[in-house]
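pinging the channel bc i need a second pair of eyes. not urgent but kinda urgent?? the chain im working w is below, pasted from the shared doc
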Amino acid sequence: MREGVPSGRYNHSIPSMRKRFQKAVEVNESRLLRIEEPGKVREYGIPEGRIKDISSKYSLEVFLSDTTRDPESFGSKGMEALIAALKGSGDRTWEMMEKVSEQTKVVFPHNVQYLMEAYILAIRPDSARYSVSESTPASLHIQIEGCPCSSKEEVPCQSICKAAAARACAEWGLAPEISLNKSSTCDLKINIGEDKRRGVT
């Protein structure tokens, strides 16, 4: 018997612990995500041409050229066009986000944030300025600066961004509370609450 080690106990407990440890760290190879694939060149980010296509139909400049348009429909259709452009676009970032969402069942805030940032770039192709002040599992806050509609009180532009955000969330079955304060720096807030964090079923 080794000094300080009870007889019989040492020989049996260590291998047992080792087996339990090995089982705990086993990796399911099918769940591994590979950012790069040998021999394949992947593009990260939405192809510029697709953003331009959306801008040509759904930019704020287009909306202001005919303010008889319904702002909610304009925002919702613009986001729909963006989502359609992303699917099958070859944007590796979006592909990886969708794969992670499938495995984790979590889509907020990252998926919605990605769509909203792309949407802002699309509706303001020459002057997009924004910052994300809060991005958590329960809320997403985006400050949008210098919007050309901010000084036009008669233009209900809040409805455009709110409708776009609602459509982005609806893609994963989320029905959040959305608010937007119109000013020189618009404050868009998307809150899903504590009980709706897991958006993929």
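so Confidence is low (pLDDT under 50) at residues 197-201. and The first helix runs from residue 9 to 24. — does that match what u expected or am i reading it wrong
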